[in-house]
Design brief:
The protein is an all-alpha fold and 517 residues long. The chain contains 21 helices and 3 strands. The longest helix has 27 residues. The radius of gyration is 26 Å and the shape is globular. The termini are far apart. 47% of the residues are buried. This is Glycosyltransferase RgtA/B/C/D-like domain-containing protein.
Length: 517
Amino acid sequence: MTSQDAIGAERPPSPGHRYGAARAAALLARPGVFGPSAGVAMTLLMAARIFLPGAVGMADNGDGPRRMCALGTVAQVDPGSAPWWAFVNFGYVRAQPGMCDPAATYRSSGNLLLRLARPLGHWLGLPGELDLRALAVLFCLLAGVALGVFAAALRGGLLARSLVCLALFAVVGDSIFAGYAASPYSETAGLLGILAATAGATHLGGSARARLGGLLVFTTGAVLAVASKTQSVSMVVPFAVLLLLSPVPLGRAAGAAASRVLPLAAAAVIAVTGVVTLQWQTEPFKVINPTEVVFVGLLGNSPDPAASAVELGLPEDFAQYAGRSWWTPDPPQSDPRWPEVRDRMTYGTVAGFLLRHPGIATDIALGAVEDFDAARPTYLGSYPVGAGEPPGAQESRLAVFGALLRFLGGGTLLLIVLALGTVAACRLRVLRHQPRRRALVAALLCLAGITGVQFLTAAYGEAIEGVKHQVFSIYAAGLALVLAAAGVLCAPRPDAAGEGALPPPRQEPARVPESVG
């Protein structure tokens, strides 16, 4: 090659090439294109994160049979594996008659996901009646749809929007949460529901059509989250607060009263879902859960368990059960006098005691902060036995948010998110003429609310497996950080205040004055 040829080979891209790249970037930057593109990317990235180089999930802690029996299936324990704790068992087969107790079956919105995953697994050629890897595929698809909806609400530069979407993927796909995608736990539905509700909420400041679509997505996600398990019922409060802050036009009518009809109807649906979910709780656990709080939470933290036992209406020597859960050897319910004190195992009893003993309530809260900091239960393995990993091994393929949590500390992150929620609440009135920005701020307030109420629910609701029960609070905290970044980087400029405003109320046309004379 001559020097002249070499010079020609190194020529910069022609103006036509630069123009083509600019046009492609401009096309991708359109919300109607960027949203679906981000959703597809999320689906593929999440699938790669869960399935490459081999599928990962979360081992059963013993709760799985209560949920999986709702579909009439039981785990098929792989050769060399174990049913609990150490390894993931993806395959489930049809239960033989008598193997599942209908009275102990756990009802949850997560059962809907399992029913969708069953035919999906057959279509994918997975063995057995149900395979949790199909549930993980469904999780990837639905998470991709939710991120696509979220991405379509973002404004600003293409780079900024892409970074915010990557941050969202880093939270949703973190090792703290991703294992639930292929697990027998109802947390899968709760995590997807919170994500979908967040995505829908970001559209509640857009055009009239965008608000209707956003309300539908938000309500679907909120119902999925609230009905996932009894613990999640407390999410009704922040979800309802957000709806009270979000007017949605009803047809052509956009007056103050008319625009509240659909949000109030959605809030009612979510509230009824919470009531039904409480009724779904199996009868034994209506006693088991408060019993755990009494003996592990209250007596276990009391400086004088004997005196506390008497105050709780128990025999003084029940102090011997302080710190013992329902599932330990020699539990409190094994005592011959248990039938006499069983009716004392209520959350009313717990609440009254905590109000009289703020020191014990504080100790429980500080223990919950430690659980929040730990983030991930250390006793549940991530791999099937065929992966060649030791029993109980846990994957850490994506741990960006987890690293941030460890760097800041659980208590610090909790305070940061609650502070962001406080700032968001103060900003809502200021942004009343900037509906798109206000929608992002309202969504941030909702997530801060979920963080707070789920932290308290996990702290005072059961008193065992506190790290696992903090998962919704930690998840909402991570999403809140992403929403805060979106509010700074991807909200419309203040001079675009009118964008997304509701149409004026429908009015009768003005009458032309009759001529005089």
